[in-house]
Amino acid sequence: MMTPRESSRLTHLLLLLHLLVPLALSLLHPPHPPPVHVPTLVPHRPTPLTRSRFSSQAQLDFITHCNSSCLHRGEQDEQLSDKLAFETLYADGSRTLTTVDVEGEDDLEGDAQLFAHLSPSRGSRLKPRHKRVRRQIYGADGRFNIQGDNFLLDYPFSTAVRISTGCTGVLVSQQHILTAAHCVHDGKDYVKGARKLRVGFLIPPSINGTKADLTSGMKPLVRWVRVKRTRVPKGWIQGPQEVSMDFDYALLELRWPHRRPFMRLSVAPSSDDLAGNRIHFSGFDSDRPGELVYRFCPVEEESSDLIYQHCDARPGASGSGVYGRVWDNGLERWERKVIGIFSGHQWLEIDGENRDYNVAVRITPLKFAQICYWVHGNRLDCVQD
């Protein structure tokens, strides 16, 4: 029987293999994805709104249902300027609404067609799944607990942060965190915990002065930082639930910059252009309190707004930054970039068959333009690289 130390070393070795082998294989055949057109978001002057009541409760187990009609609905079918408008919630409880215009929207038609619907040929190969014992866990649990300074403080795991409402977020700049909208707003009002929203940074016990030989069984500490500003797209607010999942993302701005590495954003490519066809994310799953949990899996299906997959996850992982290795034409190498936000679970009814997936919101060119504007506050820095 292995000792706890030997078991920990084996887990770390397996984790390293899972991280490095897909990259090594993908380097043999680097893709040449076509350039992506990113439109320009032109904001209008913010309009003051009444103060939020903060009357909602955070719903960490977010579940939706979708059929072929909502699945085949592309971005071009919606009133995009209205849905890309956004609310800004400030630390004092005040809020504003900013409407926008979209320049270059017509050039997106070709990009949207890439993911306008699920491929019938791919869908026909999906086999009916056995009933699962626990929701959001598919077969054997394939999640890894991230432990030890070498992993918790290393990129990309160090980009995962806790949200005080019970969710996860990902660092996307020196002052901004991307998370799921349902972690701060239920579609009608902000959740109670959004009044004094905080972001938690993991601190390994050894960094806190605890002796190294006593840290193996201890959980990381958390340093909490207040949020100065929260932004939520209008497409999430007051929208039907099956539509809202398409816009289930929010951006949090800290009161002051952090000093940790962050992960850059990217327009989500086709799964064929992801290294190993895999996505990855780390979050704070509710069934493993105090632990950072990493997982990866292949993309099963994709639509214009969502990434369908069977990565094992539990409530609390909502808002995790879903990333993949994307080929960077400028750097001529594979780069880990955030291409989506883990939202929750969706039952998909296609041709009379119910299929269940865990779902991430895809960062489309329009969403990239919006989130980039939230981060940089200007249009010049918001071009796809």
Structure, explained:
There is one protein chain. The chain has 385 residues and is an alpha+beta fold. Helices cover 16% and strands 31% of the residues. The chain has helices at residues 4-26, 68-71, 80-83, 109-113, 120-123, 149-152, 241-244, 365-376; strands at residues 40-43, 47-49, 63-67, 86-90, 95-98, 100-103, 144-146, 160-163, 168-171, 176-179, 198-203, 221-233, 250-254, 278-283, 292-302, 306-309, 321-328, 333-350, 353-362. The strands form three sheets. Strands 3, 7, 14, 15, 16, 17, 18 and 19 form an eight-stranded mixed beta sheet that branches. It has a six-stranded antiparallel β-barrel with strand order 8-9-10-13-12-11. A hairpin with a 4-residue loop joins β8 (160-163) and β9 (168-171). The chain is globular. The relative contact order is 0.20. The model is unreliable at 110-135 (pLDDT under 50).
Which stretches are poorly predicted, pLDDT < 50 over at least 5 residues?
110-135
Portion of residues in beta strands equals 25-35%
| Number of DSSP strand runs | 19
Q: Helical region count?
A: 8
Biggest sheet architecture: 8 strands, mixed
Distance between the termini: 50 Å
Sequence of secondary-structure elements: HEEEHHEEEHHEHEEEEEHEEEEEEEH
What is the average per-residue confidence, as pLDDT, rounded to a whole number? 82
Tell me the helix content: 10-25%
Shape: globular
Q: Strand pairing plus helix content: what structural class?
A: alpha+beta
Radius of gyration, taken over Cα atoms and rounded to an integer in Å: 20 Å
